[in-house]
Amino acid sequence: MADIAITSVQPDRAAIASQWQLIWWAFKRHRLAMISLFVTIAMYIVALVPGFFAINDPTAQNARATFYPPQGIHFIDTTNGFSLGLFYYPLKLTRDPQTLAAIYKEDTTKKVPLALFGRGYEYSVLGLFTSDIHLIATTDKTKPLFLFGADRLGRDVYSRVVQGAQISLSIGLVGVFISLLLGIVLGGISGYYGGKLDFVMQRVIDFVLSLPTIPIWLALAAALPQNWPATLQYMMITIILSFTGWAQLARVVRGRFLSLRTEEFVSAARLDGVSEGRIIFRHMLPSFSSHIIASVTLAVPAMILAETSLSFLGLGLQPPTISWGVLLREAQNIRSIATAPWLFMPGVAVVIAVMALNLLGDGLRDAADPYNK
């Protein structure tokens, strides 16, 4: 009898993959989105522990370093013999003989080494403990390093930009979380139950969407007392930004619930005696959770831009709170633009963050679209 060879057919990987695996495989093919993912992760790591990445105390003033220009970090030294290692040259101040304008040049005769994971000023780590370990630290405290220059009070712009990332990036996450909570709860109730409740909820959403966003933000932010502590200001600005951000998401969630409540798997769950809460959170929400994540990712940049705009106009967070919008207020006059263009570095940080989050959101949205190829 001839042997009968039995071969097992290997199932297609895509046929047995979960929804999240399919989204991840599609997302990995989006190169810009992958780059943006790493940039976003890096930004939020910096925002998590800004003191570790800062070089100087962001609140320390130095009268001798007013509008100090940016300095560079070197790795190879050929002027004082050949050597390798992180170091920088302090700047020497000279005057133009004709205009008496300040001119800074590197003093290559004095090399200041930099220490990786060196000690510097003390900072708080998530409010749990203090540390003085920094990614890069100067070995000569009398010759500070200003990577992005200094402002009119001699404060390190680089360290302030790094510190400001904690407020500006977190306010986007907190604001979107509140908007997400309101949007899912109110939109879900409206779409699941329908009827008169849906009619009332939709009229409320129509009213919120009809409000002019910028004037409402300005009016509510201007009503905040200026003598409130920074933490209370932060909380109130976040609530203000979330006030008008939930309505659009609620309408999207409502539409999805309207289309899903007549599906067979929902009807089967009802016939099986499953509670309404379990139907909503265990069966309906997971079916379009990828779309919600993509919408949230695209909403975070809008929150960051809103906080930056309010703080830049003086109606948001106030000094001594450090955010990118507060830092940009230093660049509001002609003298700053002419003599210290590096004061726009917080604006560069805003552009990078918004672009990275937008590209990340676009990649997630495309990956979550079942009709996208």
From TrEMBL:
Membrane topology, from the record: Multi-pass membrane protein
Gene3D superfamilies in the record: MetI-like
Domain ABC transmembrane type-1 intervals: 165-361
Presence of the UniProt keyword Cell membrane in the record: no
Classification via PROSITE patterns: ABC_TM1
Pfam families: BPD_transp_1, OppC_N
Keyword rRNA-binding: no
Keyword entries, A-Z: Membrane, Transmembrane, Transmembrane helix, Transport
Primary site of residence: membrane
Location of this chain's protein in the cell: Cell membrane
Membrane-spanning segments: 32-55, 167-192, 204-225, 231-253, 292-317, 337-360
Family: Belongs to the binding-protein-dependent transport system permease family.
Protein name: ABC transporter permease
Species of origin: Rhizobium oryzicola
Lineage of the organism: Bacteria, Pseudomonadati, Pseudomonadota, Alphaproteobacteria, Hyphomicrobiales
